[in-house]
Amino acid sequence: MAYVDFVMKLHKSTTRDYLARVVSHDKAACAEVAIQYGQDYWDGDRQYGYGGYRYDGRWRAIAEDMARHYRLQSGDKILDVGCGKGFLLYEFTQVIPGVEVAGIDISQYAIDHAKEEVKPFLRVGSAVSLPWPDRTFDFVISITTLHNLYNYELRSALKEIGRVGKTKKHVIVESYRNEREKANLLYWQLTCRSFYTPKEWEWMFMESGYTGDYSYIVFE
């Protein structure tokens, strides 16, 4: 298990007003809407989530970096746990011609409005019970999804990622390294259930038998 960062540069490119998130709207009410993972969360007002999650090519560089780092090649099978609208999976198909992709997400809305090119390979489901046989995939990724699970669900999800994957795996979670980042995370998050420092995440990974790589985003 190793820390390998692919997304912090992209994460930092977004400007966030943490205090406004709390004082401009009833944040608890917004979170109640967000956790339904419906239209409001993906394509509604920013107070409920993404504020419009549309394809713009920003995941291409991430796919390129991951493909290079993990030496992915034509014929490899890639699974995205928490795939959303499938934008990263689509980029993998462009970066590595001939790759096979699959995705799963809790949101019916996200799957229904996924990138058309990869929509046939996506399904609705939960990270805690993946509907594929053991060692199906050459590469399994889960990007900013697992922290949305409760702590009693995390072990099952991580074990499932380990079960359906072979050797190459990477999970990305939200985390905090100091009190400022902790406060910002609490202000900004709408769906997070597991609030852990990097060391706590590492402990959870080891307790779950997860052997892949990981990284995290923080709210500086």
Please describe what this structure looks like.
The protein has one domain: Vaccinia Virus protein VP39 (Rossmann fold). The model has no long low-confidence stretch (mean pLDDT 97). It has a 6-stranded parallel sheet with strand order 3-2-1-4-5-6. 35% of the residues are buried. It is globular, with a radius of gyration of 17 Å. The chain has 220 residues and is an alpha/beta fold. The two termini are 25 Å apart. The chain contains 10 helices and 6 strands; from the N terminus they run H-H-H-H-H-E-H-E-H-E-E-H-E-H-H-E.
Quick overview of this protein structure:
With 220 residues, this protein is of the alpha/beta class.
Q: What is the CA-atom radius of gyration, in angstroms?
A: 17 Å
Compute the number of helices. 10
Overall spatial form: globular
CATH topology: Rossmann fold
Strand content: 15-25%
Let me know the largest β-sheet.
Answer: 6 strands, parallel
Helicity level: 25-40%
CATH superfamily grouping: Vaccinia Virus protein VP39
Give the secondary structure arrangement, pairings included.
Blueprint: H1 8-12, H2 18-23, H3 27-34, H4 39-43, H5 60-70, E1 77-81, H6 87-95, E2 100-105, H7 108-112, E3 122-124, E4 137-143, H8 151-164, E5 165-174, H9 179-188, H10 198-207, E6 213-217
Parallel strand pairs: 1-2, 1-4, 2-3, 4-5, 5-6
